[in-house]
Known about the structure:
Belongs to the short-chain dehydrogenases/reductases (SDR) family. With 264 residues, this protein is an alpha/beta fold. Helices cover 50% and strands 11% of the residues.
Amino acid sequence: MTNQTVLITGASSGIGFELARCFARDQYRLVLSARPGADLQEAAQKLQQEFAGVQTIVIPADLSTHEGPVQLFEETQRQGLQIDILVNDAGFGEAGLFVETDLQKEMGIVHVNVLALMTLTKLFLREMVTRNSGKILQLGSVVSFLPNPRQAVYAATKAFVLSFSEALQHELKEMKSEVTMTILCPPATETDFFRVANAEDTKVGQSKKATPEEVAEGGYKGLLNGEARVLPTFGAKLNFASSALFSDSLLATMMNTQMQPEKE
Length: 264
């Protein structure tokens, strides 16, 4: 049992929802957030049915806008919620050659994956450092380590998450703060990601993937243990090892093959 509160973005489905299940199992108070129109209420009801007594608070927020992250923070303030754990899970991608993909969608990817994550981290980390307690889980990816043709913008945003979070980990250590930050780097996972990214027909989209349950469980345990980085599956560990063994040009070639349509 715990009296702590966790805020999870992207909580309506996929890894975010499975992380919510991990926290609900241990009776954290859940603040669930996702874009307006997402099935947040349905997600909250599922959690309440599965875990008796769990408290859920639903706060929709459009993180693809400049105002969205700030409004989410201000709403937690208005409700008097102390966020003990922040999970920056929200994110999406787009597949295809950069010269052919939609610029507006890619600007939204940068807003959600980079600017919203950075803003929420800034706002909640300040409070955590003042209290000298708290934890943050940042959703990176195995492509944080790999150049990824046909998914260039998404991979670049995940490289930002890795670099940004590792720099903050060093700052927290330098301050001798008790606040911890963990970077979760999953491989391709069986979520709605590939449909939203228009990548269902790619080789990786058609391949066997990690389950959101195993990814979330690994991230949850690593977060509570204060680990700096979590590679939750053997496939994730293999991707990371490849990034150290092979040149960027070879890695880009390999990743490009994975992102091509299966029929090719």
